[in-house]
Amino acid sequence: MSYYFAIVGTQDNPLFEYEFGTSKQGGDGVARFAEQARHMNQFIVHSSLDIVEEVQWAGGSMYLKCIDRFYNNYVSCWITGGNVKFLLLHSPSQPGAATTTRASTSIAANPTSPQTEEAIKQFFTEVYENWVKTIMSPFYQVNMEVKSPIFRARVVAAGKRYL
Question: Which one of 45, 69, 80, 123 is separated from 53 by 20 to 30 angstroms, measured CA to CA?
């Protein structure tokens, strides 16, 4: 499965972006988005912001689960208390890839399964904890792009651990 993770600020501006692949079940951690569709990731994520604004007031949860679908891409969302949105675009493995019975029950094969939702929730929870530590810095200003290599490394580690 391929992932595109974006943090979007309160003014719908991108604060952080990262693209990666699954590290589970022998994955190498490299995103496998189709080359002709790779440039669409930002547009897909930002187009789901309208749905986020509709859904965020329906419940009291920070984790909104899978909120949008664009062809074979799914968008999951987490909203912080400061209305910053964590958006994860996940695309299942390409159908041409070799599949085994073990791979067909993996997280990568079932983008809306409870196991996938739980893994994404754990990923978001860990990233949120690191986000809070980052924005507590006296040098951080609201809606400022996050360029910290430590934050990026922690997002990478969370992606490898859960996705």
Answer: 123
> Phi-psi region for residue 119, left (φ > 0), alpha (ψ -120 to 50) or beta?
alpha
Q: How far apart are CA 145 and CA 127, in angstroms?
A: 15
**pLDDT digit string, tens, across residues 25-52:** 656 666 666 676 777 888 888 999 999 9
Other CB atoms within a 10 A radius of the CB of residue 105 amount to 13
**Angle formed by the axes of helices 149-162 and 114-135, to 10°?**
160
Q: How many residues does the chain have?
A: 163
Q: Write b or e for each residue in 33-61: b if 16 or more Cβ atoms lie within 10 A of its Cβ, otherwise e.
A: beeeeeebbeebbeebbeebeebbeeeee
Q: Which residues does 34 contact at the CB level (< 8 Å), separation at least 6?
A: 94
Distance separating alpha carbons of residues 86 and 79, to the nearest angstrom: 6
State pLDDT tens for residues 107-155. Answer: 556 777 888 889 999 999 999 999 999 999 898 898 999 999 999 999 9
Separation between Cα atoms, residue 97 and residue 25, nearest integer Å: 14
**Alpha-carbon Rg for the chain in angstroms:** 15
